[in-house]
Write a structure and sequence with these properties.
CATH topology of one domain: Rossmann fold
Strand order of the largest sheet: 1-2
Strand content: 5-15%
Number of helices: 7
Shape: elongated
Number of strands: 4
CATH class of one domain: Alpha Beta
Helix content: 25-40%
Length: 198
């Protein structure tokens, strides 16, 4: 226990994205952040809040600055809470007395990059899928996806992400058992739906 309270919580993870080309397919307009309250006021009445002119830095801010583009370009620091504690995946794990993946990340993280860097119908590949959050998000965003992991148990349990909340435990068990046994499984037989994130 840290009684002296001299350390801050280590809660920042670095995420890298790489491209094979100098100009990758990316569209920041699909991941715009909500405008700040100050920017919303400026957009309501640009004349009252700002006057276009050259700044001391030499940057020339034109009247275009007062144009509503639907949101602002997000910063390099994504602030995403990891607070999912009662979603369909964990409910399925609990029902079958399975250990949930210990390093689950919030759905908003892959959602940002899937929207930013791909179009509907594109293929999303996760080679370290774990509980398959990226696959579930890709499905919900209309992308095709492939998920790989060294631990078949984790992939088998990840199928719970695609089940309806009222799926009976015996169906969850049947699905999990079939996947672990290496059987070919069509999730549509188990009430496949678009993933729900709570």
């Amino acid at each position: 226990m840290n009684k002296r309270k001299i350390r801050a919580k280590d809660s920042v993870n670095t995420v890298w994205w790489f491209s094979k080309t100098e100009w990758p397919k990316a569209d920041v307009s699909r991941v715009l952040a909500e405008y700040s309250d100050r920017m919303k006021k400026l957009l309501e009445d640009p004349e009252a809040f700002y006057s276009p002119k050259k700044r001391p830095s030499g940057h020339d801010i034109s009247k275009g600055f007062g144009k509503d583009n639907g949101g602002s370009i997000p910063s390099n620091l994504l602030q995403i809470p990891n607070s999912e504690s009662n979603g369909q995946y964990l409910r399925g794990c609990k029902a079958l007395d399975l250990q949930g993946h210990p390093a689950r990340f919030p759905a908003k993280l892959p959602e940002f990059f899937i929207r930013f860097l791909s179009d509907p119908g594109d293929l999303v590949v996760d080679i370290f899928a774990g509980s398959n959050t990226a696959g579930a998000v890709a499905e919900g965003e209309g992308r095709r996806w492939l998920a790989f992991d060294l631990e078949l148990e984790y992939l088998a349990a990840s199928a719970f992400r695609f089940m309806q909340p009222n799926t009976p435990d015996d169906q969850l068990r049947s699905l999990h058992t079939a996947i672990v046994a290496g059987q070919s499984v069509d999730l549509r037989d188990y009430l496949l739906q678009k993933p729900l994130f709570v």
